[in-house]
Amino acid sequence: MVSLAELHDVWMEDHTVEYECQANLNLYDAPTLKTLATQAVFGRQLRILPLPTTPEAVADVGAIQVCLCEDAYSGWIAVEDLDMLMTAEAPYRAIAVSEIEIRDRLPQVIAYAQAAMKQPNYYLWGGTVGPNYDCSGLVQTAFASVGVWLPRDSYQQEAFVQPISLDALEPGDLLFFGKPERCSHVALYLGNGEYIHSSGKEQGRNGIGIDRLSEEGDAVSQAYFRQFRGAGRVTASFVPAQRDVQPSGEPA
């Protein structure tokens, strides 16, 4: 466990110290801690972003801004959640994964998503810790389960993967949806025109389900097909740049 005073003193001396989550942790999009941005499962590492000059000033805010090491995603944690952190034994080091290794692990990625669908679940904005996920949280966690990291949000995942044509689609590829100007939804392709995803209440299934990439499917499939942007293939595991920080608050 890390106390506020200890964390503050360490940060003032060394901004590079990393901490390891000793329990699942919620990260929010602002210090008000009202809207979930993402979650960190037990064992993930994070570092502290700039702090006020005194522990008392931090306590007054009630929240600390952090950056997750594996995907360079930032958010705010409650001061009381410092009890869930301990100093990491070593800095996070991304492990390179080849395209061939990723291809071999795709059946396990798909199996993870299908197993998650079988559990009672609902769509949770910012969710990356089961049983409740948002769309990119499900995709990120399914790949992370086999040691492959992706960026956190759907538009970041779209920019990260290798674009492919519909004719080239294979199970384990990603499908992207949204408006012409920006991606806002991602799904995992299963084959035979079907994909699995976590969709919301407004036009989806309020949880994990399987739909068809076709204008001839049911109402949910048709709604997403009208917003289809393209497809991509995961060919590498995400490696954060030194001191890279991705903005929080836009999970999808």
What does this structure look like?
The protein is built from six helices and 13 strands. The chain folds into two domains: 4-87, SH3 type barrels (Roll), CATH 2.30.30.40; 99-233, endopeptidase fold (from Nostoc punctiforme) (Alpha-Beta Complex), CATH 3.90.1720.10. The mean pLDDT is 93. A six-stranded antiparallel β-sheet has the order 8-13-9-10-11-12, sandwiched between helices. Strands 6-5-4-1-7 form a five-stranded antiparallel β-sheet. α3 (99-118) crosses α4. The protein is elongated. The longest helix has 20 residues, at 99-118. The protein is α+β, with helices and mostly antiparallel strands.
Condensed summary:
With 252 residues, the protein is of the alpha+beta class.
State the order of secondary-structure elements, H for helix, E for strand: HEEEEHEEEHHHEEEEEHE
- What is the structural class? alpha+beta
**And the CATH topology of the largest domain?**
endopeptidase fold (from Nostoc punctiforme)
> How many distinct beta strands?
13
Overall average pLDDT: 93
Low-confidence stretches: none
What is the CATH architecture term of the largest domain?
Alpha-Beta Complex
Give the proportion of residues in helices: 10-25%
Q: For the terminal residues, how far apart are their CA atoms? A: 32 Å
Any idea of the CATH class of the largest domain?
Answer: Alpha Beta
Please describe the biggest sheet, giving its number of strands, its sense, and whether it closes into a barrel: 6 strands, antiparallel
What would you report as the Rg, rounded to the nearest angstrom? 19 Å
Number of helices: 6
